[in-house]
Rieske domain-containing protein (Gambusia affinis), 168 residues
Amino acid sequence: MASGSEDDEGNTTGASWRLIGPASELSKKPCRLMYSPLGRDSDVCLFYVRGQFFAMDARCAHSGGPLCEGDIEEADGVLRVFCPWHDYGYDLRTGKSGTLLEQQVYEVKLVDGDVYVKHASHLSPRLFPAKLARRLWVLPRCSEGKATTWVDDLCTCRPSISLMSLAI
Ligand code: FES
């Protein structure tokens, strides 16, 4: 659903590569819900299946079911996540289902062991508190001055810094 990125004024201009975190950590779970400060319709599921990462809108296109809680199955060489609410299946690569419904998928790349997702906003494994979301909107860097990336609530450039411990 999200299709642009913000400038310093918060205007949407186009998707950018968002550093999510180290693949070594992110590959420990089959799915992580990544929150967007743009709101729940822009949250993303980051799947790790069969050695590959996939990113898709987190809320089912049918009625908003939580796709991160869905089962993942492979049939005829196609990996699908099945919504836990009404069992619609979505291709992890294309977002297509056997119906007219389709999930937005996002490009994922690995660079030097880090996972990036092309998305309109920053993405975090923790819900953005309203004030912090505003700060990150214009200050996409952690207190160490590096690009903001958080895994399990810890800044990956300095794990002693918790997302929730930042003064806001
Ligand atoms: S909400 Fe996902 S299939 Fe209905």
